[in-house]
Amino acid sequence: MKKTILLAVLVASGLTFQSCGSSEKKDSEERAEQINEENKPTEDDDDSEFAVKAASGGMLEVELGRMAQEKAQSQQVKDFGAMMVKDHSKANDELKALASSKNIVLPSTLGEEEQKHVDELAKLSGKEFDKKYVSLMVDDHQKDVDEFKEEAKDAKDPDIKAFAAKTVPTLQEHLNKIKAINDAM
Predict the structure, then answer these.
(1) DSSP one-letter code for 72
(2) For residues 64 and 81, is the Cβ–Cβ distance under 8 A?
(3) What is the DSSP string of 141-178?
């Protein structure tokens, strides 16, 4: 109970601090990692860092998937975007529930790096959008597959380890599909 109250106070103070217009702005991902480092919700800091990065990446996939459905020229890219929204929304919900049970604070908004990708793609449309989105998805899913496989192998927390292992096949399927779309372009 004390941990929960402390966590709530830290989150509230972090949000208050941010809203005061601090010159040292931190993005949502950095704030979540800082709170988790202070609270030590898991045996291994790497497990909570993984959860924070997975949540941020999942939010990016959903946001860009929505954008792809609206802005893409290719029906394959639009369909891939729809799959991103569906699959990553489901994974994000599972991760939120897991993080909540472990008292891990997840970011509530995109990190600065993820927001840059959204802003960059928002300026594009048609074939230009398709090319940039597909390239980003290939790179991102390759990185995700590698990170999730590593976490599935090395995580100290058994529930986080199981989440990572359960998610790898879906991420691998996404990678295979986006590579096929890339090859056909």
Answers:
(1) B
(2) yes
(3) HHHHHHHHHHHHHH-SSHHHHHHHHHHHHHHHHHHHHH
Whether the Cβ atoms of residue 179 and residue 135 lie closer than 8 Å to each other: no
In the numeric block, which tokens belong to residue 45?
A: 């800091």
Residue 121 neighbours by CB under 8 Å, 6+ apart: 64, 67, 71, 129, 132, 133, 136
**Cβ-defined contacts of 177-181 (< 8 Å, 24+):** 177/80, 177/83, 178/80, 178/134, 178/137, 178/138, 178/141, 179/138, 181/74, 181/76, 181/77, 181/80, 181/134
With 0.70 as the threshold, say if the pTM is over it: yes
Q: Which of the listed CATH numbers 2.60.120.260, 3.30.360.10, 1.20.1260.10, 1.20.58.100 matches domain 2-184?
A: 1.20.1260.10
Per-residue pLDDT of the chain in tens (185 residues, 90 and over written 9) = 444 433 433 444 444 344 443 333 456 656 655 555 656 545 556 788 999 899 999 999 999 999 999 999 999 999 999 999 999 999 999 999 999 998 888 988 888 888 999 999 999 999 999 999 999 999 999 999 999 999 999 999 999 999 999 999 999 999 999 999 999 98
Instruction: Give yes or no for a contact between 103 and 7, defined as CB atoms under 8 angstroms apart.
Output: yes
